[in-house]
Design brief:
Blueprint lengths: L7 H16 L4 H8 L3 H14 L2 E3 L6 E3 L2 H11 L3 H16 L2 E8 L2 E8 L15 E3 L4 H7 L4 H10 L13 H14 L2 E4 L6 E9 L5 E10 L5 H22 L2
Antiparallel strand pairs: 1-2, 3-4, 3-8, 4-5, 6-7, 7-8
Keywords: DNA-binding, Transcription, Transcription regulation
Organism: Faecalicatena acetigenes
Protein name: IclR family transcriptional regulator
Length: about 250
């Protein structure tokens, strides 16, 4: 492997672009000093970046700053990333560490759609969920994990447009109670489904941002209540939060 960039000018272009991306706005002398390059070289590099649309010179203060062209390129790249293939290794690790079934969902309007599932056969009980099925945001762990990070008006809109049905004796059907529940989610970092969607099943869930920093996904650990008491929830929460951190570091570094 090369230890030195074989195309020196390419190295200088990207070093300058990375510096501008990091600092935001710099003058010619500041860039020259930071990169330890003479002013004439930096000036040529900046003119090249401006010509290609990756940088511009501020007309007011004369400083150089990056454009959004690199963001557009990043979005195009991330748009081609298969999210399931990206997170699947983390989901498998979570199953391996907890011996419980893990779900991965994507928000679609008022619902969450299961887009991946890694089953644990260790305890001999299979979850009835299936990839492609939907679950309401208002009565699920994954749904509450997502809703907790949405603007208040959007949360209210989701509630008002949803058909609020008491799925089990534990389903939250009062909006004020729902908001309090979301507040707890934000404090803890994870959401709980206390048999709110299916009697006899508890879930612990966390949201996941996409490459643009928008909360769009969530994942959960599901298990029968006899294996998911409060002590077990506390134990699993550490795995959930660690997995969330690892996955988001890859999605939006």
């Amino acid at each position: 492997m090369e230890t030195k960039n074989p195309i020196q000018v390419a190295g200088r272009l990207f070093e300058t672009l990375e510096l501008l991306a990091d600092k935001g706005s710099l003058g010619l002398m500041e860039i020259s000093s930071s990169l330890q390059l003479n002013k004439s070289t930096v000036h040529r590099v900046l003119n090249s970046l401006i010509y290609m649309g990756y940088a511009r010179q501020n007309e007011v203060n004369g400083k150089y700053e990056p454009t959004f062209k690199i963001v557009d390129m990043s979005n195009k790249i991330m748009g081609k990333v298969d999210i399931v293939n990206l997170v699947r290794p983390h989901l498998r690790d979570l199953v391996e560490n907890t011996k419980e079934t893990v779900h991965f969902v994507e928000r679609d309007g008022l619902d969450a759609v299961y887009i991946d599932k890694v089953e644990s056969f260790t305890n001999g009980i299979q979850m009835v969920s299936r990839i492609g099925s939907r679950i309401p945001l208002y009565c699920s762990g994954v749904g509450k994990a997502i809703a907790a990070h949405l603007p208040e008006q959007e949360v209210r809109d989701i509630w008002e447009r949803s058909s609020i049905v008491r799925m089990t004796p534990y389903t939250i059907t009062n909006f004020e109670q729902f908001k309090e529940n979301l507040s707890d989610v934000r404090k803890r970092g994870y959401a709980l489904d206390n048999e709110e969607n299916e009697t006899g099943v508890r879930c612990i869930a966390a949201s996941l941002k996409d490459h643009a920093g928008k909360v769009r996904y969530a994942f959960s650990i599901s298990a029968p209540v006899n294996r998911m008491d409060n002590d077990r929830i506390q134990e699993l929460s550490h795995y959930v939060l660690k997995t969330k951190e690892q996955m988001e570091s890859e999605l939006c570094p």
